[in-house]
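Fold it.
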Amino acid sequence: MGRIAKVLEFIRGVGGQSDTKCDPGGGAIRQARHFQGAGDDSPPLPSDYAALVDVPQAGGFVAVGYVDPLTEQTAAPGERRLYARTADGTQIVELWLKADGSARLSNAGGYLELEAEGDVVGNGARMTRDGDVVTSDGVSLRNHTHSQGNDSDNNTEQETEPPTL
């Protein structure tokens, strides 16, 4: 049998042996072993709810999944959206793998997006898949040059060539 319980506390253990203290209602507080996908380190917050499953030991439960009821769920079918939250549950950073083949990493300070076609955009600047960088003001750095000032012998300005690879 399984049950839904409000998370009260996450208890970090050692060697992957962490627990979640939960309130399933009815007065009894339960401590359940915390289970999640291998390679995932995402402790729940006290505002979350846990799915508890009975295990064959006296009063034994494992928490096999969690729900965040405070953050709007916006991923479309087939997408994966990961986010981190502050202690009060406020979302502060997001990684969104979209069904169109793009990916976006963002926080309140800025963003970085890999577009489906291969260009990378960060805070308005674009790096094209063929290696050009275009600033947020639309200046391409591929053929962008500056005039050279007079040298120590007071030779006149000469145009510089674009960098070579």
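The chain is about 0% helix and 40% strand.
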